[in-house]
Amino acid sequence: MPTDTRPRAEDCNCLAVRQAARHVTQFYDRFLAPTGLRTTQFSMLSKLKRLGPMTINALAADLVTDRTTLGRNIQPLERDGLIVIKQGRSDRRSRELHLTEAGAARLRSAVKGWAEAQTRFEAAFGDKRAAELRGLLRAVVASDLGAAA
Description:
Layout (H helix, E strand, L loop, with lengths): L12 H20 L6 H13 L2 E2 H8 L3 H13 L3 E5 L7 E5 L1 H25 L1 H16 L2 H4 L1
Antiparallel strand pairs: 1-3, 2-3
Helix pairs in contact: 1-5, 2-5, 3-4, 5-6
């Protein structure tokens, strides 16, 4: 008796990851809301704080997003004075993102909300499972799935 081995829509890895990502993003956004930052903005400011000025392309690659999407997310941060865009130091044609003092201050105020979200997430799933999840997701990002397509 033949069995159907075709993939089923309800087993779609992409859909499950995207739904989980949206769910977790909405959860973290609630904790960051009092600071006026969204999770994506918090991530961008955190990267700039930790790594220093970066080109738009380098930040997009580091965040695993495309340059166009990053550009849309940069606009409110620049408008609010949290980042400035300057001419590249090594390549005058490139543009670098710099965290401003106002951006660093906003990031410091947002860390409390982020830490609370992080604590509650780990309380809900356990420290070990949360660490395993991060490891698995980092392995997905580091994989050559893009090359396979």
